[in-house]
């Protein structure tokens, strides 16, 4: 069999027809994926008469910011000042993200770079914990929270987020690729474990930090308190906005505006950090 | 605690010059290792303490509570297997929940897994700029938070819903359909929305995995007689990214068995004739409304077993691929 290897071609084994149809397929599905989000963006700028137009339209004809203005008026009337909800969400998200990155990195470093009694077992348990969702542990978690006295505080959401297991897993896998020689030479220079961790390992895993930041940000940004927070002044932005969104038909326009604001934040964060996240994910594989 | 003698390791003391009267026990060796690595334990302790309290302990507690009658007021009373026998023999709704959960998982699990891979694979052939944009478009739904209400607008039961409006205008329908209140449409709609949401972490892992496949392998493959992209995919790409495939499988399987939010927001809770009841919504029902914690814990334990069991079986299968 004669195989002609084309010179100066980017990839071998690519027929034009195949590439064309794959691209058509990709574009079609991409349109489906983007449709609801495009709809949300347009709905947020629609005047009320366009929202209830028959037949419904996808694109806005006469864009207006009235929904956002209505939103502002609505927020001005809320019992708890709206800035409080914003503060709550930022506090929970900020504390959770910082704490998780620090604790998970500190735990990931020994697991990635040292062998010690129990290390295999611990990592196996962490991997097992990726295999079920938090709903499994919801009831005992509530009991544990009430024993420790964290019910109806920010910490009921923040502290469990510190121990988010996917973050530890990704961080550990990423740290494994740091060359041992780097750590050895630091040790010879007299650095102790904590200094090695803080001054050698941490600066080398910045892409992984960002990944943990965005994963946790998404989780905490969208939290409604997980059933732990009851006091109105402690409730999150997401909870407050859900009340606006589910406020019925009169709120359809304002609801879209809120949704647009809420979802644009994590998406913007992803746009900024995409390449770092992909870099982290290259080491996410499960080896054994 | 008894000590276990390991003859092969007694040489440590022998080498020290003493007669081997006192053998070094397994525990002593371990203790030495632990002491030598004490910094590792110190570094790990804050995370592991929280992990134990908020993940490991609750799983154990859940299993224990599942054998009791517990209403959060009185002290739990041990009742053996009663919760489980009630669950599988008397609770018709739970059987519907199991059926729905498995149906959801069997459809959305493999489909979303394949979708993650196929789209990552096609996107990987694009130029970097376009690749970044496409990655964003496919990944955005999974990070935009609870946008279920968008789908509520699309499948709204009146003429102003996008789906109804469109189909009426096309002449397919005469009257609007109550999409989310009609049993036969609920499942397909939830599956559709769940698929839309499911290109998350697994998808990113695949995108990343594809970029790490050694490019020279493809050229070598072409020389060795690989003729088209499908052979390339099967013989080079897939075996090269097995670790990512296994990681992606865990993520997709776990989330496909945990479908609940989409069901609650779209179909309501409880849904029409329990058409969208899943194990998780059943758990929420008994845990947060009826306060039958023993019974709810039994549901949680079944869910846990199902999730971890499925994952372990699939891991074992995937490990065999290409061997």
UniProtKB/TrEMBL annotation, chain A:
<feature type="domain" description="ABC transmembrane type-1">
    <location>
        <begin position="86"/>
        <end position="273"/>
    </location>
</feature>
<feature type="transmembrane region" description="Helical">
    <location>
        <begin position="20"/>
        <end position="45"/>
    </location>
</feature>
<feature type="transmembrane region" description="Helical">
    <location>
        <begin position="154"/>
        <end position="171"/>
    </location>
</feature>
<feature type="transmembrane region" description="Helical">
    <location>
        <begin position="121"/>
        <end position="142"/>
    </location>
</feature>
<feature type="transmembrane region" description="Helical">
    <location>
        <begin position="208"/>
        <end position="229"/>
    </location>
</feature>
<keyword id="KW-0812">Transmembrane</keyword>
<keyword id="KW-0813">Transport</keyword>
<dbReference type="Pfam" id="PF00528">
    <property type="entry name" value="BPD_transp_1"/>
</dbReference>
<protein>
    <submittedName>
        <fullName>ABC-type glycerol-3-phosphate transport system permease component</fullName>
    </submittedName>
</protein>
<comment type="similarity">
    <text>Belongs to the binding-protein-dependent transport system permease family.</text>
</comment>
<keyword id="KW-1133">Transmembrane helix</keyword>
<keyword id="KW-0472">Membrane</keyword>
<dbReference type="InterPro" id="IPR000515">
    <property type="entry name" value="MetI-like"/>
</dbReference>
<dbReference type="GO" id="GO:0055085">
    <property type="term" value="P:transmembrane transport"/>
</dbReference>
<dbReference type="InterPro" id="IPR035906">
    <property type="entry name" value="MetI-like_sf"/>
</dbReference>
<dbReference type="GO" id="GO:0005886">
    <property type="term" value="C:plasma membrane"/>
</dbReference>
<feature type="transmembrane region" description="Helical">
    <location>
        <begin position="85"/>
        <end position="109"/>
    </location>
</feature>
<feature type="transmembrane region" description="Helical">
    <location>
        <begin position="249"/>
        <end position="272"/>
    </location>
</feature>
<keyword id="KW-1003">Cell membrane</keyword>
TrEMBL record, chain B:
<feature type="transmembrane region" description="Helical">
    <location>
        <begin position="130"/>
        <end position="151"/>
    </location>
</feature>
<dbReference type="InterPro" id="IPR035906">
    <property type="entry name" value="MetI-like_sf"/>
</dbReference>
<feature type="transmembrane region" description="Helical">
    <location>
        <begin position="245"/>
        <end position="267"/>
    </location>
</feature>
<protein>
    <submittedName>
        <fullName>Carbohydrate ABC transporter membrane protein 1 (CUT1 family)</fullName>
    </submittedName>
</protein>
<comment type="similarity">
    <text>Belongs to the binding-protein-dependent transport system permease family.</text>
</comment>
<feature type="transmembrane region" description="Helical">
    <location>
        <begin position="47"/>
        <end position="73"/>
    </location>
</feature>
<keyword id="KW-0812">Transmembrane</keyword>
<keyword id="KW-1133">Transmembrane helix</keyword>
<dbReference type="GO" id="GO:0005886">
    <property type="term" value="C:plasma membrane"/>
</dbReference>
<keyword id="KW-1003">Cell membrane</keyword>
<dbReference type="GO" id="GO:0055085">
    <property type="term" value="P:transmembrane transport"/>
</dbReference>
<dbReference type="Pfam" id="PF00528">
    <property type="entry name" value="BPD_transp_1"/>
</dbReference>
<dbReference type="InterPro" id="IPR000515">
    <property type="entry name" value="MetI-like"/>
</dbReference>
<keyword id="KW-0472">Membrane</keyword>
<dbReference type="InterPro" id="IPR051393">
    <property type="entry name" value="ABC_transporter_permease"/>
</dbReference>
<feature type="domain" description="ABC transmembrane type-1">
    <location>
        <begin position="98"/>
        <end position="314"/>
    </location>
</feature>
<feature type="transmembrane region" description="Helical">
    <location>
        <begin position="185"/>
        <end position="208"/>
    </location>
</feature>
<keyword id="KW-0813">Transport</keyword>
<feature type="transmembrane region" description="Helical">
    <location>
        <begin position="293"/>
        <end position="314"/>
    </location>
</feature>
<feature type="transmembrane region" description="Helical">
    <location>
        <begin position="93"/>
        <end position="123"/>
    </location>
</feature>
